[in-house]
Write a structure and sequence with these properties.
The chain contains twelve helices and twelve strands. It has about 300 residues and is α/β, with parallel strands linked by helices. It has a domain at about 60-170 and about 200-230 and about 280-295: NAD(P)-binding Rossmann-like Domain (Rossmann fold, 3-Layer(aba) Sandwich). The strands form three sheets. The protein has a seven-stranded parallel sheet, with helices on both faces. A three-stranded mixed sheet has the order 7-9-11. α4 runs parallel beside α5. The radius of gyration is 20 Å and the shape is globular. It starts with a strand and ends with a helix. About 35% of the residues are buried.
Length: about 300
């Protein structure tokens, strides 16, 4: 296979490059040079018509689009917001159209579980039938990108698969996981709710395996899939597991639920509090059944690989 990967210097994109360059040819799309590939272009160079003959000589067969401006980096000022909108909402459609022009067989778009919301209710879960419930700029951009792609693929020869991963963890993973590890390393005091929550996470190597399966496995009508580890874990158990693996002592204080109910009324910390107390459970069985995919790494094994010192 000859695979194009965007966001090739990001956490997921760089893992994909490392994974696929062992057996396949990779064209990396990144603003920074990617050392493991011989062929690397910026997004503007890739879309420049003067480079199309060079790209066609690569004979691309598959496209994996991971490039995005993440939640925490999206600012409210108009200039940056327009940039985030272009990258997260408009660019997927542009790249999909270009993929069709290049005769690419299949286009994989990494969306986000956030298009469905940031929490699930007790004894409920997200699946492919769950309704959109975007809650910030990032998830709204991703939602609109999904809808546009679903319309485009109806008249395109390039097959489309949209994957909605949960929070992805791995060695040196960015975002909330890295912040959690940093707090644990500094023996932070964690205030948690009396009732344990349930969270679905996704190990980076399980995601790589799922994407590999997505490239060539036959699909029929399904185009959107949720991806997560099959196991769930509470915030309390995640903290305790990581602290044990890193030989750290952490202190967990259980507070009445009413405390967190009141804190969640404050807009600027509502989502952070939800991550400590609420459920976010995903059923990814449709992907496993459709793609005949078996999760290669258990969550227990994965956490050990990621966070042991």
């Amino acid at each position: 296979m000859n695979i194009i990967i965007t966001g090739a210097n990001g956490f997921i994109g760089s893992a994909l490059v490392n994974h696929f360059t062992r057996f396949h040819n990779v064209l990396a799309i990144s603003e920074k040079r990617v050392s493991k590939t011989k062929f690397c272009l910026s997004i503007n160079e890739f879309l420049d018509e003067s480079n199309i003959s060079r790209i066609k000589s690569f004979a691309p067969t598959h496209f994996i689009h991971t490039a995005a401006i993440a939640h925490k980096k999206i600012k409210s000022n108009k200039v940056f917001l327009n940039k985030a909108k272009y990258i997260n909402q408009l660019l997927p459609s542009i790249l999909y159209s270009y993929s069709n022009k290049l005769g690419i067989k299949r286009f994989i778009f990494l969306s986000s579980i956030g298009v469905l919301g940031f929490r699930t209710n007790d004894n409920e879960y997200f699946n492919e039938c769950s309704e959109y419930n975007s809650y910030d700029f990032y998830s709204e951009f991703k939602k609109k990108a999904e809808k546009k792609l679903m319309k485009q693929c109806q008249d395109s020869k390039t097959e489309l698969i949209i994957l909605r991963p949960t929070v992805v963890y791995g060695k040196n993973s960015p975002g909330n996981i890295s912040k959690l590890v940093n707090l644990i390393d500094h023996n932070f005091l964690f205030p948690l709710a009396m009732k344990d929550n349930k969270r679905s996470l996704l190990y980076i190597n399980n995601l790589l395996s799922a994407i590999s399966k997505s490239l060539n496995h036959p699909i029929k009508s399904e185009k959107i899939f949720l991806i997560s580890d099959k196991e769930t874990i509470s915030t309390k158990d995640l903290i305790r597991t990581i602290s044990r693996l890193r030989s750290k002592t952490v202190f967990i204080v259980k507070l009445p639920t009413i405390v967190f109910t009141l804190l969640k009324k404050l807009p600027f910390i509502k989502k952070r509090i939800s991550q400590l107390t609420d459920d976010l459970v995903v059923d990814s069985s449709r992907f496993s059944k459709t793609m005949e995919w078996v999760q290669p790494y258990s969550q227990k094994e994965s956490l050990k690989k990621c966070f042991s010192k």
